[in-house]
Amino acid sequence: MKKTIGYWLSATWLAIVAFLAIFGQWLPLWDWEEPDYDNIGQTPFTSWKHPLGTDGNGIDIFSGLVQGARITMLIALVSVILGGAIGSALGITAAYFRGKFDAFMNIAFSVVLSIPNLVLSLSLVSILAYSDEDNPTTDTRRIMVLILSLTIVIIPILGRIARATALQWANREFVTASKSMGTRNLRIVRDHLLPNVAPAIIAIAFLAVGVVIIAEGSLAVLGVGVPNGKSWGSQLAGAIIDIEFYPQSVYVPALFIAATVIAVNYFGDYFRRSLDRRESKI
Fold it and tell me: What is the per-residue pLDDT across 82-110, written as a single tens digit (0 to 9) for each?
């Protein structure tokens, strides 16, 4: 499939985000937790010292975004990988064995999907990572609970896709032939179903990464995200009060979030189109 300019722009942006998330802590940047009181509210592209400006507290916006990339992408990738693995296993198993287990999983997926994603995540985080003056929660616990809650949100999404795709392949001739030859069920699933279901899961997983990034930012705005500006969402949430006087502290993180979500969504659409072309030839 021909790679368009959108493909290369998305790939370049995601490569930059990945580089910042992995190697950003070793770059010669201003300390993201150290205010520069001499340059409070500096606008973007007016100084090499603070290339994307500073917020109302004198915090370097670019350094904060580099720090936030690591936490945001960690939450997004781990949630989608765990949710995809669990959901795919449940969905493929249900589609292959059918019967009562398939009926139960279909109902379970439908029940969880009927609850708005943000409401479900907000409820789980509020309960599992409750914090007050007498019982403060740690940043690590809050991140782990966020990953857990978003994983639970992702499981039925990718599980439903895995089940639907596996149903299309479970009755193909090569699967029936393997069964008639006495091949073990686990081997049939591993060698025949999983390789054919995986492309569809990967395509939706890219879209799910975008969903998780948006969800993390939304939870931060609601006050239950990663605290202390350690993620893109929490930086955006903490800067809302400064939007009138220091708008760059809001729109710069928002642009980073938007560009990343658009890029992963493009890759999801690209893989989906590639999958459609592949299946049309079969």
Answer: 999 999 999 998 888 888 888 999 899 88
Q: What is each CA distance from 50 to 54, 64, 224, 238, in whole angstroms?
A: 7, 11, 29, 19
Number of domains in the chain: 1
Range of the domain at 197: 9-24+51-280
| Structural domain includes residue 41 | no
Q: Considering the domain boundaries, does residue 2 fall inside one?
A: no
Q: Would you state the structure tokens that stand for residue 58, as one six-digit string?
A: 């004198």
Quick: pLDDT tens for 162-200. Answer: 998 888 887 787 777 887 787 787 888 887 788 888 888
Helix axes 61-97, 194-221, angle to 10 degrees: 140
**Residue 101 vs residues 38, 96, 105, 141, 170: alpha-carbon distances, Å:** 64, 10, 6, 34, 16
> Any bridge partners for residue 54, and if so which?
60
| CATH code for position 260 | 1.10.3720.10
Q: Is residue 235 part of a domain?
A: yes
pTM of the model: 0.86
